[in-house]
TrEMBL record:
PROSITE patterns: PROKAR_LIPOPROTEIN (PS51257). PANTHER family: ARABINOSE-BINDING PROTEIN-RELATED. This is Sugar ABC transporter substrate-binding protein. It comes from the Bacteria. Residues 1-21 form the signal peptide. It comes from Bifidobacterium lemurum. Pfam families: SBP_bac_1 (PF01547). InterPro entries: Bact_solute-bd_prot1, SBP. Gene3D superfamilies: Periplasmic binding protein-like II. Keywords: Signal.
Length: 433
């Protein structure tokens, strides 16, 4: 791998010296022979992506001679400030960003992201990123994902699974559930023993992911396309939305979800599961590597949510190159490092879901189980995306509505009415329908 990458690096350097304009560089003047690039991401150091990307940075520096200036940002920092930062001189050269219409799509439509079509052709990225994994990297002129030009490149996949603390289940003599009836029965048994079963964080994404998974239990492809891609009208009185919202309310009333979780963030919910305060946690595969490290002395397992043909998930977050970057060729070269076999295999062996790893190189049995599960999701075309993608403000609005539902200040009808109003307002203001 190293020799081929040195050849590519040399080729890019020569191309720059003879006045080659960087692929997709637009009108932004590009530096010749840059000595450094600035990279932002928000992955934890002990998570699979954090481990793999740190190694990619080391290899990039070693093989190109270009210094990496890495800055760790939080998910919320980038989500809330991306438009302002990317429209300034403080923009990084490459950064991790959330995929979807309301995030990457919005920035692409505003001209803040580099069109990556030429780089995709140069590096053959579309041979590795295909099908539903490619949807989140492509956006049309309105910022709607799934078609148009490439503006983002993923190198991993993700879906939302139910994590179980097997030790806690064994302690109370409860079986790991495989059906909805068994899930609710298990939660009731924990409540009967004075244990709140579900670790939740309503201030951020965990509960909205659970709500959307419940929607997906009843949703068909037509509803998902209408909601995510604006292909038709969304009926908020549909059985799927009503069922999901009523179920959340019911689980709060029964003590399966604590009202105190309204002020908790995703990290709080994850840490509470790690500490053994709760026996179940419904969240992303991005936690998997951390659990392997931080729960090494705990017997834990996972599975897809029971009785559903669609699951919450998509490609992983995407690398984007800000339009203001003056080092786009080097940024693209770094992205290619993250898709190399060495880095992909490292990600897999660190508990991630790489999209271009060598299967025989994955040595951890639990990770192989995770990858097999995700491959099954892809084969069944079961990715149901995320609930906050349709509008730029819907992430916060969903959290706010669900907080009211959990703390009891709004009933199901009111919450659905709020969601409908906010969804329609956001879609209308974006001009996508």
């Amino acid at each position: 791998m190293k020799s081929s990458r040195k050849f590519i690096a040399a080729g890019l350097a020569v191309a720059t010296m003879i006045g080659f304009a960087g692929c997709g560089s637009g009108e932004t003047a590009q530096e010749e022979n840059p000595t450094s690039i600035k990279i932002w991401h928000y992955e934890e150091d002990n998570g699979a992506q954090g481990i793999a990307w740190q190694k990619a940075m080391e290899l990039f520096e070693e093989e190109t001679g270009i210094k990496v200036e890495f800055e760790k940002k939080s998910f919320e920092q980038i989500r809330q400030n991306a438009s302002q930062v990317l429209n300034s001189d403080d923009a990084p050269d490459v950064m991790e960003y959330n995929k979807g219409n309301a995030t990457a799509g919005l920035l692409a439509s505003q001209g803040l992201l580099t069109n990556l079509n030429d780089y995709v052709s140069q590096y053959g990225w579309d041979e590795k990123i295909t099908g539903s994994l490619a949807d989140t990297g492509k956006y049309n002129e309105k910022g709607i994902m799934g078609s148009g030009d490439w503006y983002g490149i993923t190198n991993y996949g993700e879906d939302i699974v139910m994590y179980y603390n097997q030790d806690m289940f064994d302690q109370y003599g409860i079986e790991i559930p495989t059906t909805m009836d068994e899930l609710e029965d298990a939660m009731q048994q924990f409540v009967d023993n004075g244990v709140t079963p579900l670790s939740e964080g309503v201030a951020e994404y965990p509960l909205q992911h659970l709500w959307w998974q419940l929607v997906l239990q009843k949703a068909d492809d037509e509803l998902i396309q209408a909601y995510e891609m604006y292909e038709g009208d969304v009926d908020w009185s549909d059985e799927a939305f009503t069922y999901a919202t009523e179920t959340i309310q019911d689980w709060v009333e029964k003590g399966y979800i604590s009202q105190d979780s309204t002020g908790l963030k995703a990290e709080d919910a994850g840490q509470n599961f790690i500490k053994g305060s709760y026996p179940m946690f419904f969240s992303g595969t991005w936690w998997f590597g951390r659990f392997q490290t931080d729960m090494a002395d705990t017997n834990w397992t996972f599975s897809l949510f029971p009785e559903t043909e669609k699951v919450v998930g998509s490609s992983g977050n995407i690398w984007v190159i800000p339009e203001n970057s003056t080092k786009k060729d080097a940024a693209a070269q770094f992205i290619d490092f993250t898709l190399s076999e060495e880095i992909q295999n490292l990600m897999g062996n660190s508990g991630g879901l790489p999209i271009a790893a060598e299967p025989d190189a994955i040595t951890d049995e639990k990770t192989k189980e995770l990858i097999t599960s995700f491959n099954g999701v892809l084969e069944n075309n079961a990715l149901g995306f995320y609930p906050d993608w349709p509008t730029s403000t819907f992430y916060d609005e969903l959290n706010a509505s669900l907080q009211e539902l959990v703390n009891g200040t709004a009933d199901v009808e009111t919450v659905l009415s709020q969601m409908e109003e906010n969804y329609n307002k956001g879609v209308e203001s974006a001009g996508v329908k």
